[in-house]
Amino acid sequence: MKHPIINPVPLQKTLRYLRRRRGLTQAQLGYYLHVDRRRISQIECAPGVVSVNQLAALVTLLGGQLLIQYESANDGSAIERSRRAKR
Question: Can you give the pLDDT at residue 33?
Answer without folding.
Answer: 92
